[in-house]
Amino acid sequence: MALIPFDDRDGQIWMDGKMVPWREAQTHVLTHGLHYGSSIFEGQRVYNKKVFKLEQHTARLFESAKIMGFEIPFSQAQINDACKQVVEAAGYDDAYMRPVAYRGSEQMAVSAQQSKIHVAIAVWPWPSMFDPEIKAKGIKLDIARWRRPAPDTIPWKAKAAGLYMICTLSKHEAEAKGFADAMMYDWRGLVAEATGANIFFVKDNKLFTPYADCFLSGITRQTVMDLARSRQIEVVEKYIQSSDVGGFEQCFLTGSAAEVTPVGQIGDWKFNVGNITRTLMDDYSNFVRGKKV
């Protein structure tokens, strides 16, 4: 299937306060965000023409901006309204949305405090992050050679573009070896996450997930934890050693793009797509669409 470039599509993008034709939503090659990673973003899903947990995503976007040392030139209410405008203009029932804020091209050096902050919001169809047939059986994860850095070395609480560099490298290497994604350890050698999603394990009818102390505790992660507790499933946040992984029975990923994705294998470790994984997949799918769980 031929790729459709993201700069050559029909539709509209909200950019710096107004809707513009998709192909005209452009920025200069000497934009600071491109050269120095001074860019933040959100990934959020649209279900039944509504952005899931829109206010939480927008609040996180603004918190990321604060951590990165710049101020978004719109209020949270204005960004929420803009997201709704984009959904209405696109007309999609279900889709993926990407708000992004970044430093512009006024200064081209490490220091760019006078650069204008730009904001754009786009939406496009993205039914599933992984092939549905492969997903149903449980995707296969490689083990990344890159590790999540120590929290005193990066602004890890920001959803910042530059932090995804090692994620791209890890996913590319995994795909080249026939895997769908990769599990990343942190700087201590503890289980952290996948390249763009949080990770959960199941053992003895309990749900286990790593402490989010050097990577984002995703909004989908938090939603799934709440759904599990509503089912009286015990949720345990703990430091997970590599030696623990083989003892788990089930595994799955969570994220706005990944939603709830079963994992059948990590390296040489294998897992079942069991009842708890399937239940939480169904509960999440129903919950985001406003159905009773």
Structure description:
The chain has eight helices and 16 strands. It is α+β, with helices and mostly antiparallel strands. The chain folds into two domains: 12-124, Aminotransferase class 4, branched-chain amino acid transferase, N-terminal domain (D-amino Acid Aminotransferase, Chain A, domain 1, 2-Layer Sandwich); 132-288, D-amino Acid Aminotransferase, Chain A, domain 2, CATH 3.20.10.10. Strands 8, 9, 10, 11, 12, 13, 14, 15 and 16 form a nine-stranded mixed sheet that branches. Strands 1, 2, 3, 4, 5, 6 and 7 form a seven-stranded antiparallel sheet that branches. Helix 2 packs across helix 3. The mean pLDDT is 96.
Characteristic key phrases:
D-amino Acid Aminotransferase, Chain A, domain 1; alpha+beta; single chain; seven-stranded antiparallel β-sheet; 293 residues; D-amino Acid Aminotransferase, Chain A, domain 2
The computed structural class is: alpha+beta
Name the CATH superfamily assignment of the largest domain. Answer: D-amino Acid Aminotransferase, subunit A, domain 2
Write the element-wise H/E pattern from the N-terminal end onward.
EEHEEEHHEEHEHEEEEHEHEEEH
CATH class category of the largest domain: Alpha Beta
Low-confidence stretches: none
Largest sheet at a glance? 9 strands, mixed
What is the strand tally?
A: 16
Rounded to the nearest angstrom, the distance between the terminal CA atoms is: 37 Å
Question: Any idea what the radius of gyration is?
Answer: 19 Å
Percent helix among the residues?
25-40%
User: What is the domain total for the residues?
Assistant: 2
Shape descriptor: globular
CATH topology of the largest domain: D-amino Acid Aminotransferase, Chain A, domain 2
Round the mean pLDDT to the nearest integer and report it: 96
- Annotated CATH architecture of the largest domain: Alpha-Beta Barrel
Figure out the total of helices.
Answer: 8
- Beta percentage is 25-35%
